[in-house]
Amino acid sequence: MFEVSVSTSFPAEHAVRIAGIDETPHSHVWKVVAVVTGDKLDRDGLLIDFLQLQSDLNEVVAPLRETNLNTNEVLQHKNPSTEIVAKYIAIELKKRVKSPASLASITLTEAPNCIATYRL
Question: Which residues pair with 16 in a beta bridge?
Fold first, then answer.
């Protein structure tokens, strides 16, 4: 099994609702790692082109960049927890990853030591 990953980051604000109470809005520089896996390589010996995967990841996070995640339409007004944001990125990036590769996970760090992973 082969595994390839790329990463990016984006600034965004949110205020997560916990037990019915909204946090004070605050900003993060979110860090995203996309992991792609597969058993086969293409005729060039690649699982996936790093540059294409990086471009696709940047396009997926572009609507989140420098926004308030609480009011961002792409999240459909869901509570913008790290888990929900990671799932959104995973679902959107999965649509762009072509066989023989497949998206395995998105890991999203909102702050040091605060990390969520969504596995497909």
Answer: none
Total domains in the chain come to 1
**Domain around 36:** 2-17+25-119
Give the three-state DSSP class for 106: strand
Does 53 have pLDDT greater than 90?
Answer: yes
pLDDT digits 0-9 by tens, 55-100: 999 999 999 999 999 999 999 999 999 999 999 999 999 999 998 8
Q: What is the CATH number for 12?
A: 3.30.479.10
Q: Which pLDDT score is estimated for 99?
A: 87
Element (H, E) at 50: helix 50-61
Burial pattern 4-42, b for ≥16 Cβ within 10 A else e, equals bebebebebbbbbeeeeeeeeeeebebbbbbbbbbeeee
Spatial distance between the Cα atoms of 103 and 89, rounded to a whole number of angstroms: 11
Global confidence as pTM: 0.96
Structure-token pair, residue 17: 């609702």
C-alpha dihedral sign at 53, 58, 59, 60: positive
